[in-house]
């Protein structure tokens, strides 16, 4: 494989990464793994930088692993005694590999801290025995595992989800969450997917339902026509003289518009005041 082909591979991988087509990227990485390269080819192309960017931002774990393995393989090429030693280029690959290891280490430390916080939220009694602490630790690891599976590609959402779970577990008005997790009535995978509204206590849920019902009732029209009965208006549909006249105010307090509705008591036909046009 010559320089032009490797450059073409780098360009195609970068374009497919922007388009989100990771199946084709996987096949291109497989071809690169099966193709021997020399140090000069890595020096004069942007393939190493392209793979580093792919590892940092690719959402597919299998593609990231293949790219990491390929970078490790090329690192051995740079340190081979049979190749011309270019310190600058070799340092780029080492720097890229080091940054990837640091990111993995940072993610591991973050997850361990989240497990510790979840364990504290699940253990309000600091004098719990060893056996109970072990069970709670397993439960905390399981909850964190499911949260990470949901938001592994977005660290901000992962942190926000963990904070929401911690706040609701510590809330004295939501004891049902901890009790459900400890008794097994609430599986950890279900708890990891619950929203803030679903984790709320019964009192808060009833309060929200009351607000929702009140808001709906305020915006609903009356079920039946109200107003003054009259026999001086003839219905346009059934020609009956039994109708109801209703006036409704619309608009703001400073600029109100009064609309007059007429409803037939016999057939239910309804029209409004403006030239008696039927609704």
Q: Given the structure, what is the number of helices?
A: 12
- The helix content, as a percent range, equals 55-70%
End-to-end Cα distance = 77 Å
Low-confidence stretches: 81-88, 275-279
Order of helices and strands: HHHHHHHHHHHHEEEE
Domain count, please report it: 3
Mean pLDDT: 78
What is the subunit organization of this protein? Answer: single chain
- How would you describe the shape? flat
The main sheet comes to: 4 strands, antiparallel
Short description:
The chain folds into 3 domains: 3-85, Conserved domain common to transcription factors TFIIS, elongin A, CRSP70 (Transcription Elongation Factor S-II, Chain A, Up-down Bundle), CATH 1.20.930; 108-199, no CATH class; 228-276, Single Sheet (N-terminal domain of TfIIb). It has 12 helices and 4 strands, in the order H-H-H-H-H-H-H-H-H-H-H-H-E-E-E-E. It has helices at 3-19, 22-33, 39-43, 47-57, 61-78, 87-122, 130-151, 155-170, 175-183, 188-193, 196-199, 202-219, and strands at 228-230, 243-251, 256-264, 270-272.
């Amino acid at each position: 494989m010559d320089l032009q082909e490797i450059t073409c591979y780098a360009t195609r991988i970068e374009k497919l990464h922007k388009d989100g087509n990771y199946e084709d990227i996987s096949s291109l990485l497989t071809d690169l793994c099966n193709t021997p390269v020399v140090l000069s080819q890595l020096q004069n192309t942007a393939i190493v930088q392209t793979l580093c960017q792919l590892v940092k931002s690719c959402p597919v774990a299998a593609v990231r692993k293949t790219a990491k393995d390929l970078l490790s393989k090329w690192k051995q090429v740079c340190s081979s005694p049979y190749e011309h030693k270019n310190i600058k280029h070799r340092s780029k690959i080492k720097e890229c590999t080091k940054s990837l290891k640091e990111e993995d280490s940072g993610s591991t430390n973050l997850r361990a801290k989240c497990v510790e916080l979840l364990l504290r939220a699940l253990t309000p009694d600091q004098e719990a025995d060893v056996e109970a602490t072990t069970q709670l630790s397993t439960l905390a690891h399981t909850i964190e595992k499911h949260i990470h599976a949901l938001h592994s590609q977005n660290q901000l959402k992962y942190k926000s989800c963990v904070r929401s779970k911690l706040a609701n577990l510590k809330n004295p008005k939501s004891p049902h969450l901890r009790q459900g997790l400890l008794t097994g009535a609430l599986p950890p995978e279900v708890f990891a997917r619950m929203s803030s509204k679903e984790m709320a206590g019964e009192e808060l849920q009833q309060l929200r339902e009351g607000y929702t019902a009140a808001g709906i009732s305020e915006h609903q029209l009356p079920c039946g026509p109200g107003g003054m009965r009259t026999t001086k208006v003839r219905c346009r549909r059934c020609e009956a003289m039994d109708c109801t006249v209703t006036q409704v105010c619309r608009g703001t307090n400073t600029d109100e518009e009064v609309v007059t509705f007429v409803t037939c008591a016999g057939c239910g036909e309804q029209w409004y005041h403006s030239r008696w046009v039927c609704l």
